[in-house]
Fold this sequence. Notes:
A hairpin with a 4-residue loop joins strand 1 and strand 2 (15-23). This protein is mostly beta strands. It starts with 5 loop residues before the first strand and ends with a strand. The protein has one helix spanning 53-57; strands at residues 6-10, 15-23, 30-36, 41-42, 45-46, 49-52, 59-62, 65-68, 70-74. A 5-stranded antiparallel sheet has the order 6-3-2-1-9. The protein has a two-stranded antiparallel sheet with strand order 4-5. Strands 7-8 form a two-stranded antiparallel sheet. It is globular and about 40 Å long.
Amino acid sequence: MTIQPGIYEHYKGxxxxxxxxxxxxxxxxxxxxxxxxxxxxxxxxxxxxxxxFDVFVKTVTQDGHDVPRFRFIGNE
Length: 76
């Protein structure tokens, strides 16, 4: 599974840099590796996070409309 690297916006706001996908070493579940572009920094750098691929790309209902949880907004 792949996802386009770049900047994504969460449906509630907040932007994230998607770096790549990776497999979980125990379950082999696909994960999305990303970096929040806001909030607390550690040693001058944003922390890296992972989310299950299926959760990252799913849609949610907002104001009666199905919208992507994370919407691609462009390359860096």
